[in-house]
Design a protein that fits this description.
By secondary structure, the protein is mainly alpha-helical. The protein has one domain: Up-down Bundle (Ferritin), CATH 1.20.1260. The chain is about 75% helix and about 0% strand. It is built from seven helices and no strands. The two termini are about 30 Å apart.
């Protein structure tokens, strides 16, 4: 059984050109995204403490995302790039969350599935970044992140399958995947992960 999904659309070449044209801004945004991903995993633990089957994996994911943040921050230090003074709202994530159902159980499913899709999108984009970087250490770093994010895409679907019927999970995953593609294509290009 496949635990993730083929994204409904590919990131554009214009996006990767924008990132390569302002890589320091991309690093700042990437660091923020890793912090938010860690916090998101822990928010599942806080909001759903009764879902004990998935808490260990959520904690592991949160720790791994925080380690990614540390690695990105170390790259930023080497390049003399500071963290931004504040974390701006991620319009991509906000628009996705706007499509979540409102009931507690339905929202839990949607948030897990969007987490999977977001991780799959991150994997796709980290691969593009790795493919377009020339500096060997940076290239290796983003290749490592690409494989890690792809694994996270699987984890969240697997978590959902603990609580929901397979047909329901994949039907909703396909619906949310189509929404993600439309949201992604509607956003202005910027040197950011989303």
């Amino acid at each position: 059984m496949k635990l993730s999904i083929e994204l409904s659309c590919e990131s554009s070449m214009e996006w990767i050109e924008t990132v390569m044209g302002d890589f320091n801004s991309f690093l700042q945004d990437h660091a923020n995204c890793e912090r938010k991903a860690s916090a998101m995993a822990m928010s599942f633990v806080a909001k759903y403490p009764d879902r004990v089957e998935i808490i260990p994996e959520l904690i592991d994911t949160a720790v791994e995302e925080l380690e990614h943040f540390r690695s990105v921050y170390q790259l930023m230090e080497q390049r003399g790039v500071q963290l931004p003074a504040e974390i701006s709202q991620d319009m991509y994530v906000k628009r996705l969350i706007d499509h979540c159902h409102s009931g507690r159980t339905e929202r839990f499913l949607d948030r897990l599935l969007f987490a999977s899709i977001i991780e799959c999108r991150g994997a796709e984009r980290f691969k593009l970044v790795a493919d377009h970087l020339e500096e060997p250490l940076l290239k290796k770093f983003y290749k490592t992140l690409w494989t890690s994010e792809a694994k996270h895409g699987n984890i969240f679907v697997k978590m959902a399958l603990n609580y929901f019927d397979e047909d329901r999970v994949y039907k909703r995953l396909n619906e949310l995947n189509e929404i993600e593609g439309k949201v992604l294509q509607s956003l202005p290009l910027k040197a950011a992960l989303h």
